[in-house]
Amino acid sequence: MSPSLIVRAIGSALALPDLAFNEDGVCCVFIPGELELQFEWIADSSQLLLLAPLGDLGDDADGSRSRALLAANFLFNGTRGESLSLEPGSGKVYLCAMRNMEADTPERLVEWITGFVDTAQQWRIRLASDYAAQPDPHAPIASMPHFVRG
After folding, report:
1. Tens digit of pLDDT for each residue in 99-125?
2. Which of the 8 DSSP states describes residue 24?
């Protein structure tokens, strides 16, 4: 899928018809009161990077919040296939994902972004509360069909 088709699909899904990548291949969207999304087109690999700042790690003197992030990343158990990241200097937590767009469709792209936004919103809530230190008992386990042998 081309960059123009990608940004058109995103813009259509968000009712932002004038959405466009800048000269660096970056496009930012702010959903008021909810979330900031950054899309980055990596041209030499036909990959789309999706990034969302979730908030500060907060007080982590005992390491429980950091352990919760690591546990969620293990086999993507609490992230639906995305990765939680901690920016070293600032203590900000991000949700990150990358997708190969060569054979993708606009419909699958919008479905992927919708799932990403759902995960990001859940983690923003968890980071804003003490719940972040607790494992998520309802976290979906990512399927890994390429590991299944028939």
Report:
1. 988 878 888 888 998 899 999 999 998
2. T
